Amino acid sequence: MNDETRWLNDTERRAWMSLLAVVLVGFPELERTFRPHGLVHVEYGLLAALSNEDEGLRLSELAAQMNMSQSRLSHRMRKLVDLGYVEVSGDACDGRVSIARVTEAGRRFAEQVSPAHVADVRRLIFDHLDEAQTAALADALGAVADRLGSTCPGAPKGPPVPKARA
Length: 166
Fold this sequence. Notes:
The chain is mostly helical. The chain contains six helices and three strands, in the order H-H-E-H-H-E-E-H-H. Helix 2 (about 40-50) crosses helix 4 (about 70-80). The longest helix is centred in the first third of the chain and has 25 residues, at about 10-35.
């Protein structure tokens, strides 16, 4: 084992400090969209993940997809259930399994708040980048996410597929 520290070079340090700024400044800014509704970003993320699943998701699958412990998921789900945005029920085939589904109220809420969320993401990140920078950012963060074993909902698996143009 090599005990020599591999210090960050100037470019790596700049990238790391910029990433920290996005996490430490950008994410709290994104939270402002959800705060008036009594939610935090991770709860919106759960709602968004469930909104893409008409049949719902097993709680164990949702926890894995969102990289959450069962305990943290349970706490966050209780809040979404209390707000009427999500329902949790047993699986008809396996009583040991719980399935979470977004409710109509949850879908309406997601449809109401998602335009503001997208506008915030654009304002904080993408409005400052040109198309080439956005592609480079997607490639770079995708490589890191793949290495981390990303299971984030909507994250591409493998190379990006170009969209057909009309």
